[in-house]
Amino acid sequence: xxxxxxxxxxxxxxxxxxxxxxxxxxxxxxxxxxxxxxxxxxxxxxxxxxxxxxxxxxxxxxxxxxxxxxxxxxxxxxxxxxxxxxxxxxxxxxxxxxxxxxxxxxxxxxxxxxxxxxxxxxxxxxxxxxxxxxxxxxxxxxxxxxxxxxxxxxxxxxxxxxxxxxxxxxxxxxxxxxxxxxxxxxxxxxxxxxxxxxxxxxxxxxxxxxxxxxxxxxxxxxxxxxxxxxxxxxxxxxxxxxxxxxxxxxxxxxxxxxxxxxxxxxxxxxxxxxxxxxxxxxxxx
Length: 285
Ligand SMILES: [Zn+2]
Known about the structure:
By secondary structure, this protein is α/β, with parallel strands linked by helices. It has a single domain, classed as LmbE-like (Rossmann fold, 3-Layer(aba) Sandwich). It is built from nine helices and ten strands. The strands form two sheets. Strands 3-2-1-4-5-9-8-10 form an eight-stranded mixed beta sheet, with helices on both faces. It has a two-stranded antiparallel ribbon with strand order 6-7. Helix 3 runs antiparallel to helix 6 (about 180-190), helix 4 (about 95-105) packs across helix 5 and helix 4 (about 95-105) packs across helix 8. The longest helix has 18 residues, at about 55-70. It starts with 5 loop residues before the first strand and ends in a 6-residue tail after the last strand. It binds zinc ion.
């Protein structure tokens, strides 16, 4: 990327690699911002991985992220962990937005890569909310472009990874083959505590799009959200109530302008253009 820094906002250490691992080595001076430490308070995941405390598990997840960046030849300009507990980011969306505002004012990225709003994990949606809210609260001259990487959502009761929910914005599909795919696989292998989950994610390509304008007071899609199938601390009605409370606390008037069809320019900034194939709206669910 030759036209300014990129910040990657990820709810958990591994989301950045799952969604954007193929392009991370191309970014100049990437700034990684992890919202949570990846360690839920209920200790189930920590205990399953042999850790006696939530803190130890969180530290292991951070080490895995740093190892993955080394394995991919990624040289972060900064790595910031905001330290919220896994599954609790949506309880702190106003505070999280203020954290991001400070960071964005300080680091001034041209682009921010973040999760879409899709009901996959409440922390992912909280990260999306906070980026959009911070964008809306920044002076126009400091606003970065927001580009989304894929995460996961519900599709007929099953997890759907690697695609977006439909939205009226074009997306870029970037195939990963040969050395690029092997590099991403090496990066993902570093997340040893997450291997049972990573089996649901392919490594053959990645998709990106300019973030559409969202209404965070409404669910991201009709029907049951993916995270409502689990005890991840949040149901849809609670999440949207938390988002509305945060919006009011922040004084965010919700006047986010739709990004419009500017995707080609920002995608070329991220992807370098050459390897990307442009497609229209897609997504099965
Ligand atoms: Zn995640």
